[in-house]
Write a structure and sequence with these properties.
Elements lengths: L5 H5 L1 H32 L2 H28 L2 H24 L5 H29 L5 H30 L1 H20 L15 H13 L2 H16 L1
Helix pairs in contact: 2-3, 2-5, 2-6, 2-7, 3-5, 3-8, 4-5, 4-7, 6-7
Length: 236
């Protein structure tokens, strides 16, 4: 079954967002391989690699609901742009650390947690913004395109990361990831649409998070999905 490319042809801003995020996600998957590889290269300890996974999981659990609340209360385009810049800074830190004579293991853990924290704000903003860039009749086609983009990055990114790390070293993987943020930031910058928040900036984040938790708790299918994800990330 062929993908419906109508949203890419019909919506300029979605097209910019799609290809910018495709390149950026490909780079992120390179770092996804490079970070645990560097931890193992420094420690020769599989437990430390597993501990890294825990450090990356905690920010997701803590900040995901807050990120969703912010996506409803602030301009999504601005939030996405700031998130991309912060992710770029975190990756720059990993690159500079890898280049140093004595790379800091603690700094790798801190930056890995920082990147996951920022992603907890980045993803809700991107998903919420996407829905505002297209007409409802194209939601199905966009969902398929976004799944294709994620799958492509998840397959090609780690493979490319392995080749780069084996051929040129860990720092090259970080450097390539760093370069991909340029495309994402540029794409967001040239988008014309301004997506206003659905809620007032003065509305309490705690109140919004409380409503989200109550809604999720009433949906067993959502609770089950969250639990499966948590178990998979923790014990993978």
């Amino acid at each position: 079954m062929l993908l419906d490319l109508t949203p890419l042809r019909a919506y300029r801003d979605y097209r910019l967002l799609f290809f910018g995020q495709m390149v950026s996600y490909l780079g992120s998957m390179i770092s996804y391989v490079a970070i645990p590889y560097e931890v193992y290269a420094l420690t020769k300890n599989s437990f430390m690699v597993g501990l890294l996974g825990t450090v990356q999981l905690v920010p997701v659990l803590v900040f995901s609901l807050i990120g969703g609340s912010y996506a409803d209360r602030f301009d999504r385009r601005r939030l996405l742009l700031v998130s991309e810049m912060l992710l770029c800074l975190g990756t720059l830190g990993l690159f500079l650390n890898a280049r140093s004579a004595n790379p800091s293991l603690v700094l790798i853990f801190v930056l890995a947690g920082f990147l996951q924290s920022v992603n907890a704000f980045h993803r809700p903003a991107m998903e919420a913004m996407t829905q505002k860039l297209i007409e409802p009749k194209h939601y199905g086609a966009v969902a398929a395109l976004n799944t294709f983009r994620s799958s492509l990055g998840a397959i090609l990114g780690p493979a490319l990361g392995g080749v780069l790390i084996a051929s040129f070293g860990i720092q090259t993987g970080y450097l390539v990831d760093l370069g991909t943020f340029f495309f994402a930031v540029l794409a967001i910058y040239f988008m014309r649409a301004s997506v206003p928040p659905e809620q007032s900036e003065n509305q309490s984040s705690f109140h919004a998070i409380k409503e989200s938790l109550i809604y999720a708790w009433k949906k067993p299918e959502l609770v089950g999905t969250y639990l499966v994800d948590i178990v998979a990330i923790t014990f993978a």
